[in-house]
Amino acid sequence: MTDDQQHLQTLTDIKRIMERSSRFISLSGLSGVSAGLCALVGAWLARVWLVAYYERWDSTGVYNDADYADLKVKLITTALVVMVAAVSGGLFFTWRRAKKNNLPIWDVTSRKVLINVCIPLAAGGAFAAGILYNHMETLVAPTCLVFYGLALVNASKYTLPELRYLGILEILLGIANLFLLRKGLYFWAVGFGVLHIVYGIVMWWKYERKGSFQ
Amino acid sequence: MNPIGNLNKIFESRIRLGVMSVLMVNNEVNFNDLKQMLEVTDGNLASHLNTLEENGYIKVYKGFIGRKTNTTYAITTAGEKAFKGHLAALEHMIKFTK
């Protein structure tokens, strides 16, 4: 029945337009994998510096103010470099996927995702800056994880719905970290590294593997 | 009962159908975004938007961003009801003819 098929086609079109106009569906799973790898490299570097710092402390036997300040600058710089690398990688893979599917990368839906990620993330950034200012460094990792998780939960309404679960896991991890304060780096590596990689592979497997669009 | 009696003639155009689909899931969409999402030309989209407005299915807000015009569109309650009715009729018809 061609008439029947035509109406079915109409319904499919409606569904597709609704989905496409309200959700940013070009977000690539590979973005998650690359961001996760950046985070793991960053965490490894941070560990190297921390270990070296404690070795120096042990050998001299006294606390050195300048050495501590130096460590802090190194760690913050690493974090910023990792962030830039992760975001660039993410943008690259998403841009590639959008191009492959002939979809615009900068449209209403991507703007919505960006705005909704940025609100909790900016709040978290300011919060973490306040924590550093008050010399409560151990709280930085849990804060980052919780606010990042909230940002993902918030953005999931405008992109792949599975992002919500990643967000919830990041929040839980951040809260768990609050109760195991000195293990921040490990939680950081799991949250930003391992979880991203697992999520990215699952999303890639689910949506991109066949090179087709849903 | 005539199985296609409940279909709404206004929504027979693919572009009008597209406009309604977009407006169902977005609060307010401007002209350029609609154009980009539906991949149609200015004139074509404008005339279909007029038809929808004349039938009271969409609301038009004319505004400015700086000196450039920014016209946004939103669905009306009547439009939402009519579109849902149309979808139900489509669904019913597909089931009915099987």
From TrEMBL, chain A:
It comes from Chitinophaga varians. The keyword Transmembrane applies. This is Uncharacterized protein. Keywords: Membrane, Transmembrane, Transmembrane helix. The chain crosses the membrane at residues 24-53, 73-93, 113-133, 139-156, 163-180, 186-205. The lineage of its organism: Bacteria, Pseudomonadati, Bacteroidota, Chitinophagia, Chitinophagales.
Automatic annotation (TrEMBL), chain B:
InterPro entries: ArsR-like_HTH, WH-like_DNA-bd_sf, WH_DNA-bd_dom, WH_DNA-bd_sf. It holds the Pfam family HTH_34. Gene3D superfamilies: Winged helix-like DNA-binding domain superfamily/Winged helix DNA-binding domain. Residues 15-94 form the Winged helix DNA-binding domain. CDD domains: HTH_ARSR. GO terms for biological process: regulation of DNA-templated transcription. This is Transcriptional regulator.
